[in-house]
Design a protein that fits this description.
Length: 327
Amino acid sequence: MQLDDQLNLEIAGYRIALDSSGSLGNICFVSHAHSDHMRAIRNKERRILASKPTFALAGVDEIDAREIALDGVKIDMLPSGHMLGARQLRVEWDSQSFTYTGDLKLSESLTAERAQVRETDYLLLEGTFGNPRYKFPDRAEIYERIASFVSKNYNDGHIVLLGGYALGKAQELIAIVNRFCGIKPIVSEKIHKACEVYSRFGVRLETACVGSEEAEELMRSNFVAIMPFHQVNFELAVKLSKAYRRSVYTAVATGWALTTRFPVDEAFPLSDHADFEELLEYVELARPKRIYCCHGNEELLSHELSKRGYDAQPAAKSEIQLHLEVR
């Protein structure tokens, strides 16, 4: 096995591109349906490894989502916890194992199962929040805070706007508002279509699509809307307040709320990534012989893992090739 600096895994004569659309891999593994990871999924010249929910969320159900068989290589796609359909890639060959986590979250959420951890010889680990300063509150606590913000302002007759990434985070916010507030939020067509896919795969979400008769009726009074993250701010709140003659309260949900200020009333540190301690927990459970860090904080996370006795290094150093020993 060999892993190059472009995150292509060469194994038994095959080349698997790991969340990379620009590489020369004849097989592409797509870990989940966020746009920065799934550009390769519409390339019909390549064989695609992805979960059925990922294909559905990408809007390409006609592509055959069955498992790809490689001679002599065992392939497993394990839940990564990041969002509906998000998967890790685990391969076994010649009595060795390699795992690529993709975007990872250990805690279970209302809309995604937690990551599954198996022991592995070699680990390619994402490090979006791979810095010791990132420690998220308990997920149940954040749910309670969001539900309290929504319920209080809605019950007081105000409009509430929640912002989150349109795919993944928005659906989790909808689940919170549905379950803990008993409210059906208004959403964009894009978010609504994603919710329909979630429902097909067993995650039932209640929404009113903007422009529909139901949404128009809800907007005759105060309402809750869940919108793309970048659209929710004080400027929009002022415009809506003038148009509807009601107070408008705004909030966003993102892991970056720990360190970044946003132009909203509240910013909740709700992330679909593992924080630093969860990354350490994953490594402890996986017991890898060697770790390669990718997707952010590569140098720092490698350093922190090395301090704790692990053989860790950044995966994307252009001057190195990562050779995995063949036994």
